[in-house]
Amino acid sequence: MENPQFTPGPRCQRQQLRPQPKIPSIVEGFRLAARNAIASGFDGVEVHAANGYLLDQFLRDGSNQRSGPYGGSMDNRARLLREVLEAVAAATPLMGLRLSPLNGFNDIRDSDPIGLARWLPQQLNQLSLHYQHVIRANCTGVQQGDLLTPMREQFRGVHVADGGYSADEANAAIGAGQVNAVAFGTPFRANPDTFYSPGPEGYTDDMPPGRLTQR
Ligand SMILES: Cc1cc2nc3c(=O)[nH]c(=O)nc-3n(C[C@H](O)[C@H](O)[C@H](O)COP(=O)(O)O)c2cc1C
Predict the structure, then answer these.
(1) Ligand 1: which of 106, 135, 196 to mutate, most ligand atoms within 8 Å of CB?
(2) Phi, psi of 159, rounded to the nearest 5 degrees
(3) Is residue 203 annotated as part of the catalytic site, yes or no?
(4) Cα of 123 to ligand 1 centre, how many Å?
(5) Burial class (CB in 10 A: 0-12, 13-18, 19+), 51
(6) What is the Cα–Cα distance from 134 to 106, expressed in whole angstroms?
(7) Binding site membership of 166 for ligand 1 (Cβ less than 6 Å)
(8) Which residues are CB-neighbours of 2 under 8 A, at least 6 positions away?
(9) Could you tell me the distance, in angstroms and rounded to a whole number, from the CA of residue 67 to the centre of ligand 1?
(10) What atom in ligand 1 is closest to the CA of residue 51?
(11) Tens place of pLDDT per residue across the chain (215 aa)
(12) Most Cβ neighbours (<10 Å): which of 31, 83, 103, 121?
């Protein structure tokens, strides 16, 4: 097999804009999922608005090409997120939110990621959000900047970060008051062959040396 390279395409632009009348059904879907989670015994719900998934597509101006109440200004682009958080908050006693304003995963980007990162937590303070979970990583390396500082400074709830932390770095960041907690993924995989890619890497090998030193 040749080594096919992933070519980022304008996938977000190719997607059809969701007609506005369908948006309430999206909000209702999140509410129902949260209600079912709590009914199933979960303590709380973390809303995923990161990594180029639907809520992130609305948040960032590289993908949100809408006009009208859900497009244009940051306030409009965050409208769907606010509606979802209000709906989920009514269904769960504990709510977190996962964000990644800098991450270019899934081809997503924003013209002002740090501005968004500074503005968004101010809005979140007005909602019943217990913690924000910020992915500091930027998989594509397209956008750079200090994301965590403005997000911590502006948010009044618990500030969780993740993305390539070792145990030592996490302890240092908590000790220095940069974050309240750190989340991990990679070091806790049961099966190392979980990083799928367009080529054999990820299926047939493990992460590059150095990433798993804290295992
Ligand atoms: C095997 C694996 C699969 C993951 N899948 C997703 C995913 O589907 N969506 C997502 O937003 N993040 C996904 N993540 C990212 C994690 O949620 C988390 O942000 C990340 O693992 C934290 O960084 P770390 O792995 O360097 O500790 C995945 C992580 C791993 C290790």
Answers:
(1) 135
(2) -110, 110
(3) no
(4) 26
(5) middle
(6) 17
(7) no
(8) none
(9) 32
(10) 11
(11) 333 344 444 544 455 677 777 899 999 999 999 999 999 999 999 999 999 999 999 999 999 999 999 999 999 999 999 999 999 999 999 999 999 999 988 889 999 999 999 999 999 999 999 999 999 988 788 788 899 999 999 999 999 999 999 999 999 999 999 999 999 998 888 776 777 777 777 667 665 544 443 33
(12) 103
- Burial (CB count <10 Å: 0-12, 13-18, 19+), residue 190: exposed
Q: Which helix (H) or strand (E) holds 97?
A: strand 95-99
Is 50's C-beta closer than 6 angstroms to any atom of ligand 1?
Answer: yes
Q: List domains and CATH numbers for the chain.
A: 20-184 (3.20.20.70), 187-215 (no CATH)
